[in-house]
Write a structure and sequence with these properties.
- The radius of gyration is 12 Å and the shape is globular.
- With about 70 residues, the protein is α+β, with helices and mostly antiparallel strands.
- It contains two helices and two strands, in the order βαβα.
- Strands 1-2 form a two-stranded parallel ribbon.
């Protein structure tokens, strides 16, 4: 699973995701990959803390599903 998000975790995000206080100031993509790996250890989680446009079509093309969400 490729997680793409250029933003960092803010205190206001703590009630809307699987983020904890220790994640405040960290990349959302990296923090989510870390927590998701604990919940789903048999899944490969890859974090890309960049804008979607910076990922590149070739990397997205290999994905079976692309899901977008905003908070």
């Amino acid at each position: 699973v490729l997680l793409i998000d250029p933003e960092t975790v803010e205190p206001s995000n703590l009630s809307r995701g699987v983020f904890y206080r220790r994640h405040v100031g960290e990349s959302k993509a990296l923090a989510l990959a870390e927590e998701a790996a604990v919940l789903f250890p048999d899944t490969r989680w890859v974090a890309a803390p960049v804008e979607l446009a910076d990922v590149g079509w070739s990397r997205l093309y290999s994905c079976a599903l692309v899901f977008s969400a905003v908070d």
